[in-house]
Write a structure and sequence with these properties.
Radius of gyration: 47 Å
Number of domains: 3
Strand content: 5-15%
Distance between the termini: 47 Å
Largest sheet: 6 strands, antiparallel
Oligomer: single chain
Number of strands: 11
Helix content: 55-70%
Length: 391
Amino acid sequence: MGNELRKVIIVDDDPTVSELLSTILVGKFEPVTVGENAEQINNVIRQTNPCCVLLDVKLATTDGRKLCHDIKEEFGEQSPPIILVSGDSSEDTIISCFENGADDFIPKPFSFTSVVRKIESLLRYENMLTSLQSQSDELTELVNTTMSQASSYGAVLSMVKKINLNHSEETISQCVFDYLASEGLSSAIYFTNQNESRCFDQKARICSPLIKELFELAHNRKRLYKLGTRLLISDKHVSILIKNPPVENTEQYGIFIDVIAVIIEALEARYLGLLREQRLGMLDSELSQVILELHHSVEEVRAKKQKLIDDIVLRIGLSFHELELTELQEEFFSKLLEDTVMGHDDNNNVISQLQDKLASLVEQIHELVVHEEDKEEQGAQVVGEEDFELF
């Protein structure tokens, strides 16, 4: 099959010319002589798939130029190259041949070498056109693929920006669901940590027991886990179940895998950030409550101690004369009471300083929580305001 000669159809009403052309072509091509009937010519073209047609202009019953036009109309882009042959090599004749679809023209009389060279030159040109068309098709496909990828990646960036503006598993999931739905994909999302697990479904919002059990059994076993016609994509704390993924080994599937890898990593990072926000918020609330309780307790103890000391000082002061103490003894006890009261005030100052430090710490934690939320929103706004262009 590799050495099979390419076929050339010869259409000429003169048997001598047909035989001469056949003799010229033998060895380099396989000549196939056909009558001037249009239907017969079309049938032979379909059966033999020739590399070229040599067609005489002046046939006995029809004009070769009309046959050429009809063949081109019949086969369109699949038409074989057609070389018109004529003893009339005037400019008008040649122009009319090309106007009717001829690919080349050979004047009579012709030499052996000129016929072969014409055919070979025409075939090289056709091969070059085929190669260029193939390259053009590949380039067009590449451009379409690139534009499709750019569109998908741009939409993913927008979705990542949105999930960073949300502060609950449900609203984060909805951002992902909206994007996947725009791509014709149905999904469910699973969040898990050491304390709890939550599952959301794109259609039903709440996952069915079957879907939740599937997540619990298959989560984080593999990065990509095929479950029949479904596909599970997992990270440490997040999983996405795609219920209708694209067909494998297709261009669409390749883009899908790239995009879903970005989504799962963005979800994992956002969920960890959400857990940190929740822990900081709880710590802020708990510390604030502790500070408030400590403040009330300290004030209550301080008031009781102050009343007790005031009572002691009053009673001792009244008892100085009853005890008949000397002036020196009275001065000693007065100094002792004064030092005790001053020490009590120093203790109160230490407690007040401790309260102030704890209150300052709570304020810093609160500012940190607010700052982290503001920073996420500002960062997302910057991404949204910039023009995203790949080309």
